[in-house]
Design a protein that fits this description.
Elements lengths: L19 H10 L3 E5 L3 H10 L3 E4 L3 H4 L11 H14 L4 E5 L9 H15 L3 E3 L7 H9 L4 E6 L5 H4 L9 H17 L3 E5 L3 H10 L4 E4 L7 E4 L1 H4 L17 H17 L11
Parallel strand pairs: 1-2, 1-8, 2-3, 3-4, 4-5, 5-6, 6-7, 7-8
Helix pairs in contact: 2-4, 4-5, 5-6
The protein binds 3-methyl-2-oxobutanoic acid.
């Protein structure tokens, strides 16, 4: 247990939680939705204080938190653990959690059971699934149980071994047509929003205009109704990852590296702790 400094008791201010209804209104008013990933309490607290609308407990935790090459290895228990911390830190943001690979593809009952575990054990506000028409039955079943569902089309990293590469999806007419059909099927099934990952901006615009639910883009251009980035990439924690769609707002890798080098130097030089830093 960490001891708080001085009299740091938090003041419980009334904060209005973002809902799926508010996200829908934002699409119609033209206010863009700002979404970021988060995987723990501390980061969720900062992003929530900054005013992010949606926090996604992405299965990208498998990459950026656990160091795996793909999103496939992360488990439902691990996603729930990450989600619990994020939910505790998020006072205003709507928290969505990825159903991990292998927890919903079997059948719609399995999908529902996984979604229920996430909602019950983490306190999150919704779940995200990758895929189109093939998961529509699961989407309907989860929503029927009262759980909001976000879709995810385009580059769907859980299918990376089918695609073979992380390059832009749906550049050809056939795949673009399938994506449009999938987007309509997800909307029809009841999704409250759809992530569009790494597809041509023109296609993302067409899809966004054709839907009444919001689209959230990552590498899908400016005309989506919102944007999402992996927070570790946005703040420059991920070394050497710089795809074209990524705007890096900080270079925390360098910042932490330099701070750590200074700390090591001070410890070795017996400069830390000094007289004021001891009891
Ligand atoms: O897992 C994740 O971080 C995601 C975003 C890239 C949308 O699904």
């Amino acid at each position: 247990m960490r001891v708080q400094n001085d009299s740091a008791m938090s003041v419980n201010k009334e904060v209005k939680r973002i809902t799926t209804h508010i996200l829908q209104e934002m699409k119609h008013s033209g206010e863009k939705i700002a979404m970021l990933t988060a995987y723990d309490y501390s980061m969720a607290t900062i992003l929530d204080d900054a005013g992010v609308d949606v926090l996604l407990v992405g299965d990208s935790a498998s990459n950026v938190m656990a160091g795996h090459e793909t999103t496939l290895p992360i488990t439902l228990d691990q996603m729930i653990y990450h989600a619990q911390g994020v939910v505790r830190g998020a006072k205003r943001a709507f928290v969505v959690v990825d159903l991990p690979f292998g927890s919903y593809q079997g059948n719609s009952k399995e999908a529902l059971n996984s979604a229920i575990r996430i909602m019950k054990e983490s306190g999150a506000h919704g779940v995200k699934l990758e895929g189109g028409t093939e998961i529509a039955e699961s989407v309907v079943r989860i929503i029927t149980a009262g759980i909001p569902v976000m879709g995810h089309l385009g580059l769907t990293p859980q299918s990376i071994y089918k695609f073979g590469t992380y390059t832009v999806r749906a550049k050809g007419e056939e795949e673009a047509e399938k994506l449009k059909t999938d987007a309509l099927a997800l909307q029809e099934a009841g999704c409250f929003a759809i992530v569009l990952e790494k597809i041509p901006a023109k296609l993302a615009r067409e899809v966004s205009e054709s839907l009444h639910i919001p689209t959230i883009g990552i590498g899908a251009g400016t005309d989506c109704d919102g944007q999402v980035l992996v927070v570790n990439d946005m703040i420059g924690l991920t070394k050497g990852f710089k795809p074209r769609f990524l705007r890096q707002y900080l270079n925390l890798y360098e910042g932490i590296l330099e701070a750590t080098q200074s700390y090591i130097k001070d410890v070795k030089a017996k400069d830390f702790p000094n007289e004021k830093e001891q009891y």
